[in-house]
Amino acid sequence: MDSTEESEMIKILLQYQHGFFISKVLLTASELGVFDLLLESGESQTSTMIAERLNTSPIGMERLLETCVGLKLLRMERKGDKDYFGNTKFANLFLAKSSPKSQYNYLKLFSEIGYSSFQYLTDAVREGKNQLESIHGPSTKDFFQAMYSSEEKIEKYFSALGNTWSLFGREVVSAFDLSHFPTIYDLGGGSGVLAKECTSLYPNSTVTIFDLPQVVERANKHFVASKEHRITFQEGNFFKDPVLKLTCTFWLESCTSGMRKVCAVVYKTSQSLQTRWWSVDS
Length: 282
Ligand SMILES: C[S@@+](CC[C@H](N)C(=O)[O-])C[C@H]1O[C@@H](n2cnc3c(N)ncnc32)[C@H](O)[C@@H]1O
Fold this sequence. Notes:
- The protein is α/β, with parallel strands linked by helices.
- Helix content is 55%, strand content 13%.
- The strands form 2 sheets. The chain has a 5-stranded parallel β-sheet with strand order 5-4-3-6-7, with helices on both faces. Strands 1-2 form a two-stranded antiparallel sheet.
- Helix 4 packs across helix 5 and helix 11 runs parallel beside helix 12 (193-201).
- The mean pLDDT is 88.
- Residues 144, 161, 188-191, 193-194, 211-212, 215, 237-239, 253-254 line the site of S-adenosylmethionine (SAM).
């Protein structure tokens, strides 16, 4: 092996070894509100000013900000004998809370749950089973049971999903022309983000969101406006309850392994009704 090849490999090694540093820096700055403060203030600020406003130690904030500059999340300019920090376009677009494409809630969910869950990856591989009980406490059998254990958690989960759809929701619902389908069933439709995209893109379609009772209750009350008559709800458990009421188009997204199981169950039932299917992998 020549020395160029080895130094390339060392570069990759260092990137992989320290990869989580990057996401943790991003999550920390986001959680502390650095990007929101800099967007709202509209002008660059010194690390001391930022630390004071965000109630952190001056030295800790200074180091965090400098690292963010290295990652191109922030920019820094020297004025007089002081360094001033401001958001990059990237931070304004994706990291500040008030941006329509903000990923703040998604980052927060990952910071609070995703990051710590990955500590159990070795155990999961060794044992060949999920680590929900270690992550969320004893008797947690199901991911959604953990996510829906309080109103606040439901809110957090769907706000996070909503963030990701703000990036590519429109592309997903327009990937196939669904305009000739008057009724669309969104299985596991959650808060209705995609249902709203559908009704906006297909003015002649109505969407029925099928989801667990606690999600339907919340979505009906808080996520989908009552004047939105083209979105309706059906609550149930698609592993146990009948889903089909009429001949319609099914649209499944998030075909994770669990959802594939669902596809199989519903597809079998629907064949007798000559239902047409679209499946969109996320
Ligand atoms: C990954 S989330 C996607 C939510 C929504 N489609 C979105 O992208 O925002 C999967 C959805 O499936 C629902 N779900 C999971 N298991 C279910 C079941 N057994 N019966 C009905 N809905 C279920 C969850 O409540 C959740 O809303």
